[in-house]
Amino acid sequence: MILSIFAFGQPVLKKVASSIDQNYPDLNKLISNMWDTMYHAEGVGLAAPQIGLAIRLFVIDTIQLRERGRVDMEDAFKKVFINAQILEETGEHWAYEEGCLSIPGIRGNVERNPTIRIKYLDENFVEHEESFSGMNARVIQHEYDHIEGKLFVEKLAPLKKQLIRGKLENIKKGKIEVDYKMKFV
Ligand code: NI
Q: Fewer beta carbons within 10 Å, N or C terminal of the chain?
């Protein structure tokens, strides 16, 4: 089932999300709905706050990036991350133009570390500790920011922030064209 994506301005996007346990109601259904919603909107990742739930859950499929022509994605993956905790971020910052399903029509360069070590539970509540790098790490960092109540637009250069101020106001008010379901303030 395709859910509405909460738009920039929705308070849930600014909350630090809470951990969940195996008793979380209808978790499998929720995860399945998040995949449907993400693919429908042509995203590579989706975090629970983006569908209005302040819980530490996000889903990522970077295999789509490879299918869209990124040749450097031989280690692409499709994974569910529950109660994720980034343990370490290392390496020289690199910039890449990011976007976000909650902030349609805006893209901007974000500086991030290239390598991370992360601990998380999968959809069966099996614990993993893994390292990721490059684009895989970047997508995780972006989704992880969502469960920490942070948005990529807050990480843009000051001038860029000024340039997009009007556009962000329009998104808040729902004054945008978007071809997936969204929930505005
Ligand atoms: Ni996002």
A: N
